[in-house]
Amino acid sequence: MARYRDACVPGSTLAISNSAMLDISEEEIDGAQEVFETTTTPTLRTRDHAEVLEMFAGYELLDPGVVPSAQWRPDQPVSEKYAARSNAYAGVGILP
């Protein structure tokens, strides 16, 4: 990500959505991996909150920051349980 950031000009926007097993069983994870193995993207790479946040190093995060994707500026409020089921973190940052 540092090489990408260094190639960008001030004002550039970075949007990231990354899978994260927030509310899912090991069995469901294994099933998801099996599906990914049949695609052109054969590896399922999940990241925790800290890892996704680290991808924004050098960027100024827009509100609400890095959150479960269902909570990133939803049209209506969402419950914590629903947000966890999105199983992804999302965020947007601006390069100062």
From TrEMBL:
GO terms for biological process: methylation. It comes from the Bacteria. GO terms for molecular function: methyltransferase activity. Keywords: Methyltransferase, Transferase. This is S-adenosyl methyltransferase. It comes from Actinopolyspora mzabensis.
